[in-house]
Amino acid sequence: MSREPLDVHVVASHGGAQRVGTLAEESGRSVFTYLPDVPAGLLVSLLMPVRAESYVWPRLHPFFQMNLPEGAKKDILIRQLGPHADVSDFGLLALTGANTIGRVRVVPRGMTPAAAASKPNMAELLASTDSRENLLRLLESGVSEGVSGVMPKTLLRSVAKATTWTDDFILKTGFDDLPGLAINEYLCLEVARYAGLEVPEARLSADGQVLAVQRFDRIENGEIVAVEDYCALKGQDAISKYDGSLESLARLTETYVSRETFKDNARRLFTLLLLNYAIHNQDAHLKNFALVYSDSGDARLAPVYDVLSGTAYPKYATANPALDLKSRRVWASGALLQNYGGARLGLSRADMNDAVARVTAAVDEVTPMVSAFADQYVEFREVAKRMLDAWSAGLDDIKPDAKPGKTRPASLREKMGMSDADASATRKETNPYANPDGAFSHKAR
Fold first, then answer.
1. Global pTM value
2. Is the pLDDT of residue 144 over 80?
3. Which of 141, 151, 349, 359 has the most other CB atoms within 10 Å of its CB?
């Protein structure tokens, strides 16, 4: 199939989008070429700095794959588009590339980038008594904006999880078979906030069904910053987001973050890793870590996003961490993490102990909130108990002397008077695989 090239734009600091290059398919390969005289600061990707020579990739470049639909959502999208639509990655990029997170816009040749026409009234949606259904209806009516009606307006009716965004917030809802998912993520973001990490503002709907998270690709002066996840930075296709390690996170951070700011970013990365182990976020894969930057010299770790206590749900109760650490995927990794922080991130023992203390204190601060939400939302009660079980185990897992097979967690749910939880979901079996298309896929946007 012969496809027309796509135009690639970068939103400059003054707010206007500047055309910087073209993306084409040649002999089955993806070819990106910068236009002449593009300023170095308008680079599309840290892997693709401005140069005259084209960038050639066997498939679509990893950076351009970054915001494409994944997993079940992509399958439904392909079915709904019909037999005559271009459902290749290149074709899907042409449909979705004008409205993505970050500053890069990809549009069919000759078109100009346009913001999505559908701007949800977030205040009304969050105050509604049926916010999840309202969000899905909003997605139905707005999903085809800017793509000439190619996508059916009922496209997202059959998708159990949906994410859209306004100019300032990302709106997310959860799954029918994973109750309280929005509440779960809200509470985990609060743990990150109390731990001193950079966390976007988050708001929960009155009925607990929708989470609004402030977009972190916008900064105070209105500038749109670049966002690049670690899967793209590693040069891997999005489908390989679980093919990585904490060691690769450290290596990529050292490669793309300046020497002057590396130590601060290393502390933040280490704290975020501890957080993921402490809350048992089993889906912290390569796409759930990212850098943000205005140019190649100021890259830094992105604010925290997509953190969940996934093992609080029975279908994920036996899941292990998404990424390797010393070629292993086990929760009780406090000793391994301490070695990693020193050897890979150059952190002192004091730095690491401080991070452990802050994450531990943050969990203690948010634990009463878990109990309060359990009282408020019936559908969240059993999940809340299992979350506290996971957090109890996780706090033990991140202790410096923690090792696989050695666990003695104190019970947070007993502390909160919620001791009738099903203990079978707490831990600690071995999961033989990680589901690459699992329910917590970052790019359901």
1. 0.84
2. no
3. 359
